[in-house]
Amino acid sequence: MEYVTAVPHPRTEAAAPARSGRRSLAVALLCGALGAAVALLATRQRWADGTASVAGGTFPLTAKGSDVTGVPAALAIVGLAALVAVFAVRRAGRFVVAGLLALSGAGIVTAALLAASDASALDEKAAQASGDTSATVAALSHTGWPYVAAAGGVLILLAGLLALRYGALWPAMSGRYERGTDRPRRKARPVDPERPEEIWKALDRGEDPTGA
Asked: In the chain, how many domains are there?
């Protein structure tokens, strides 16, 4: 009578980390690229509206995300560069770059949420439109685009956390593309003294067929 054991196969245990690495890599790339695109797109949209009092009435004012704060757009570019750089470094360098990626996402979230109720950009525009440096914006309202930018930051943060957790399992740039890396030279095959054609070939290459 034969018995069947439930002992896992060694190949199955070895393949599990590789599968986790591939899945985490795909998710991190998707989250990082999508998060940067969303954050950059959101900063180009209208974040706030208001009016300024001028001679003869009111003047409408609008502020885009880039008018309110330039931090989310700058950190989105930094995060995208860090996402690419993860594959160019190894070991401790990869850990540092992954941390930079995560910090970029956290910074986008913080800056976007702080700017969601900010009125300083429109106050400056109100002062310019009215010619009064003490003028402030009236009828202030905000859109949901700051929160969209924050969502992009969350995606970049997630990509950074995945890189910190699973980055050691991800592939790195091949050594043949690294500057200053020499390929190992192939050793010449010993010449068979009983084959004259090999002796002549060795002489043509400038080698000593005797091996001395």
From this structure: 1
